[in-house]
């Protein structure tokens, strides 16, 4: 019975009448069920399958980490790396020139975007013999790093215990003296690397775009390389021949669906739009409004509206909209005619350095026509390195000599370049027209020309009122050069021709948003003083719309004061109706306008500031007002600051030094913001 008890302990006990039976019916059923389950389990178990032997694929092992510039340098035998912080492409262009130079001095260099690499590896650069890091760092806005150098800047700030004692470095800074924080980023990187123990092997170079940035760079570079050779004990090879970076491949039977037709990043991204939209994936915004703002005069001031419905793009008043323009088709056709090429040939320019992250100078495969229309800058005077590389193709020895002279750092060469190229505003087309013996291969020309960059405009609307609309205010650039040619601004003339039609066709603009620090105060009760002559009024149209919206929401809004300037009331008093309506509604508490040429003596915004000095000083000194300046950096912004210094002296009882410091403190506290250009 012991066995039976064990088997039935967990089941219903048998009744007295059934005790004589060895197994009850229920026991038999359960026993059969268990046996069946056990058999099923054994039968259904899969036998271990033999693992087939696959032939090992002969593929190259991946690098230790894709973001390791050290491993890449070791693999390719490079000892010089040139990092660039670049917003408009010039810093990147200088970095490429320096990395190319290295070959002429018996070394090997690579240009690198700090955003693509792990910058903590700078401490490991000493693992490579005779290594050197060069930094070409541009300053953007009010002393800020460029977008691609932001993470590097943050890393430098946050890592006080970083040991860079084995790092050799030098810095060339790109800036503009008209700005308050001249070359701030380059100066900071130079100073900070030294603080972290790195060794500066050549003096900081300062490039001034308000003067002659190209000349500054060439002069610095010609002293820099001999110093590097001396430091590392190497001799220059003396090889001044042209060095090609890309190889041409012509495609004869490529499917046109695989050919770039103007896209910035992903192929066919303009046909199938996918958010998020940014500088590498712009949104094609339809133009819904394009109207001339000025009533008369020889200029063309325009207001455009871009429809961003369904794009998920968000913006705030004070942000910038960036647009990707295209070159004038007539210029592109003339280049093709002069060089005698079929512009519709499909080509690729492939980097000879297979390890480089930059496989092509622009999206490839594409046609010469697309490259010259969408990707390359053909309107700006070419830099000296372009002249140097193209000189070999001049059949006239005199032309060859002059081109080489202009690309040198000799006083005579600098003077010739300044007068014949820069002063005369000769772009590459004008140079080819005026130098008939110069006929370079079009592929080499495409390799050398800089990329056509996005253009930034202060947004002239508020997303509070217009979440699906972005407004642009701009003046069309057009002028006659000393050679009698008419030069046209690439972006403004392109925008001018983005017409709104009734036939259903919509002109589109590839665009994205760049966030700004140019912001209304957090507290709506703070007074705001806006100073923006000409198209400098753009962000203030957004500010006025937003302050008006806040008032409509029942919020208490502080004083909103505008100082605007233009030439003539009857000609270029832009947004007159909107401004006067805002004043009528009490959104603008004060509308001050300087019509500079409506009287014998010119009157500018700074003059009206001084006329209203008592009210202005009260708003700034007592009422915690925020000051905003937008427009010309070279003259207007400086004159406005001088006017405020003088008001501080007169009404604040300060010395000039104290008044200057007072305004600087307003900037530091975020109460004095500038959105200026030169």
UniProtKB/TrEMBL annotation:
Membrane topology: Single-pass membrane protein
Domain FAD-binding FR-type span(s) in chain numbering: 280-521
Lineage top rank: taxon: Eukaryota
EC numbers: 1.6.2.4
MF (Gene Ontology): flavin adenine dinucleotide binding; FMN binding; NADP binding; NADPH-hemoprotein reductase activity
GO cellular component terms listed in the entry, alphabetical order: cytosol; endoplasmic reticulum membrane
A Pfam entry, by short name: FAD_binding_1
Residues at which FAD binds: 455-458, 473-475, 479, 489-492, 677
Transmembrane segments: 22-43
Enzymatic reactions: 2 oxidized [cytochrome P450] + NADPH = 2 reduced [cytochrome P450] + NADP(+) + H(+)
InterPro entries: CysJ-like_FAD-binding, FAD-bd_FR_type, Flavdoxin-like, Flavodoxin/NO_synth, Flavoprot_Pyr_Nucl_cyt_Rdtase, Flavoprotein-like_sf, FNR_nucleotide-bd, NADPH_Cyt_P450_Rdtase_alpha
Binding-site list for FMN: 86-91, 138-141, 174-183, 209
Flavodoxin-like domain span: 80-225
Function field: This enzyme is required for electron transfer from NADP to cytochrome P450 in microsomes. It can also provide electron transfer to heme oxygenase and cytochrome B5.
Name this protein carries in UniProt: NADPH--cytochrome P450 reductase
